[in-house]
Design a protein that fits this description.
seven-stranded parallel beta sheet; 14% strand; single chain; alpha/beta
């Protein structure tokens, strides 16, 4: 079986190679970390027991923050090795933890690279954020009696049907999981349908509720306000935007500015992916509005000239600061079928939050927010204009939406501690079975 899996990976990589080459030269990706991807991962302190936590990209790294902080506080005897698959995920992980944790690219799931990674990391348990289960990873962990725990478990409407089509192939992999800590009952049932024994699946809510900041004021937020000269005028923030959405937002902004009460309205646009910063800048450049790239202000630690009508948020890790200053927020990747960006962040900060209909990556959060009137869903560009206008002009209405959203986020907190307790339980059980290895 291991040879069949490796052969399948080689075929898949050959098919994917043109995209790798394109991204290598055009997007400056895949240019580092190859030794780590091949399993050469050096721990800071190889003598300590170890927890290997894998967060595939930026969203998972951010979701893991509270969990990592609590693991370090409550289980300080364990070293944490944090891996990520994407360049942006690793960059975010390094910005948060490079001085305190072993941070590395996730190794390819080829049998030889995964075997080398296990030999070097020597984990006592493996924690996988949301779903990221791989056949060789699961097999090597099972052979070594190393428990694999899916934390913040989620099987989206998009990924679940794909797994279900190949259920016979993935069932052995899912059956080897020591525990799945699912976000919702629906996700729990999906994990069980794919082969996870029911007694190893629990519902603990989402870790993202715990990581969502609920206080907007901080020196960093105040500094951002100074840098863009934001005073009493309203700020509309379009965060985590995807292709086509910046153009939609610019058109809506132009219409809003024609409303006499909104003549002083300002806009912050923050694309979800850094490779799209220049594309967004080119679109804004074509508009009639004054604008500035926040990266220039941040790098030079300076302030903008006058009051730019549009601020392009072209840096990583600063989206929350823009949300903290917002009067109204539009959460991107939702007007086009991309699955959405994180709407917990603005809702937790008590901001009036709007998003489009394509939110399958955040199904549970959206259901909670809409059911409690803690956010507004818009169908298209026209509704985005109408509802943003209403929220900007009717402060009482917007305030109620914002308060409802924040209350919902606070109500759902608590998954981190439940996860810590479950990890302790699994580790204790694993130690009891050690002689049987």
């Amino acid at each position: 079986m291991r040879y069949l899996i490796d052969f399948a990976y080689i075929i898949a990589m050959l098919g994917y190679s043109p995209k790798i080459v394109y991204r290598f030269f055009r997007e400056n990706r895949y240019k580092s970390g190859w030794s780590q991807r091949l399993g050469k991962i050096r721990r800071r302190d190889p003598e300590r027991p170890c927890l290997w936590l894998h967060a595939v990209s930026v969203g998972e790294v951010n979701a893991a923050r509270t969990l990592i902080d609590e693991l370090r506080r409550q289980m300080p005897e364990y070293e944490i090795v944090l891996t990520s698959t994407t360049d942006t995920g690793l960059e975010r992980a390094r910005s948060l933890y490079e001085q305190t944790l072993t941070v590395s690219y996730f190794p390819f799931d080829f049998s030889w690279s995964m075997s080398r990674a296990f030999e070097q990391i020597r984990p006592d348990a493996i924690l996988l954020m949301e779903l990221e289960v791989w056949p060789n990873l699961a097999r090597f962990a099972f052979q070594r009696n190393i428990p694999v725990i899916v934390v913040n478990g989620r099987l989206s409407d998009k990924s679940f049907p794909r797994y279900r089509k190949i259920r016979r192939l993935v069932q052995p992999m899912f059956s080897r999981l020591a525990l799945v800590l699912a976000q919702t009952e629906e996700y729990a049932k999906r994990f069980m349908e794919l082969g996870c024994p029911a007694q190893r699946v629990r519902v603990v809510s989402s870790l993202k509720y715990d990581t969502a900041r609920t206080e907007a004021d901080s020196p960093a937020v105040q500094r951002l306000a100074e840098q863009i000269h934001l005073e009493s005028e309203p700020l509309w923030v379009a965060g985590g935007t995807g292709p086509q959405e910046e153009q939609i937002v610019l058109e809506v902004f132009s219409r809003l500015k024609k409303e006499p009460p909104l003549k002083d309205l300002r806009l912050a646009v923050i694309p979800r992916k850094p490779e799209r910063f220049d594309e967004a800048a080119a679109l804004i450049e074509q508009s009639p509005f004054s604008w500035v790239r926040y990266s220039r202000l941040k790098e030079q630690n300076t302030t903008a000239d006058a009051k730019p009508e549009i601020i392009l948020g072209d840096t990583m890790g600063d989206l929350n600061k823009f949300y903290a200053l917002a009067s109204v927020v539009f959460v991107g990747r939702t007007l086009t079928p991309l699955g959405g960006s994180d709407m917990m962040e603005p809702a937790a900060l008590g901001k009036c939050t709007l998003f489009g209909p394509y939110t399958f990556n955040f199904k549970q959060t959206v259901q909670e927010l809409l059911a409690g009137q803690g956010a507004i869903e818009v169908a298209d560009k026209e509704q985005l204009f109408e509802m943003t206008r209403t929220c900007l002009l009717e402060s009482g209405f917007a305030r109620q939406i914002a308060e409802n959203g924040r209350r919902i986020i606070l109500r759902n907190k608590g998954a981190t501690q439940k996860t810590i307790e479950a990890v302790r339980e699994v580790l204790a059980h694993s130690r009891q079975e050690e002689p049987a290895k």
